[in-house]
């Protein structure tokens, strides 16, 4: 049984959050990626809205710098670090991945940023052995998602072909 929702949050591009407080988090995605993580035992939920695949830093991602949440690889690792600090084991996590639309025409030889974001999210989750239980990736249409941090439920609405990023 879900607790009563304590708060509502609109997640902007480049943001992430981890919470044990029941929160409804909504965001709009085009080429960006949202990764949700949920632990049924602790009822901790986490979500990011990442814009680019990787920070590309030779030193790796800064898990302390909030501006790095705009990168898929950094954002996922930042969420994992915070969840682990709360006693969540990786094997307990359920991941869901959304977005990665290629909203603008690209070529087969050079995948668009949406495809690159989707690929990076799945690579990082696979590398960290996080189970992906649902994904809705690619295509040419944006998405609106609503994430329930206390249940892990994600409601998805596909948007008309428009300028969502």
From TrEMBL:
The keyword Cell wall biogenesis/degradation does not apply. Transmembrane segments: none annotated. Probably deamidates glutamine residues to glutamate on methyl-accepting chemotaxis receptors (MCPs), playing an important role in chemotaxis. Belongs to the CheD family. This is Probable chemoreceptor glutamine deamidase CheD. It comes from the Bacteria. It is an enzyme of class 3 (hydrolase). GO terms for molecular function: protein-glutamine glutaminase activity. One of its GO terms (biological process) is chemotaxis. Keywords: Chemotaxis, Hydrolase. The lineage of its organism: Bacteria, Pseudomonadati, Thermodesulfobacteriota, Desulfuromonadia, Geobacterales. The keyword Transmembrane does not apply. HAMAP family: CheD. Its EC number is 3.5.1.44. InterPro entries: CheD-like_sf, Chemorcpt_Glu_NH3ase_CheD, Cytotoxic_necrot_fac-like_cat. It catalyses: L-glutaminyl-[protein] + H2O = L-glutamyl-[protein] + NH4(+).
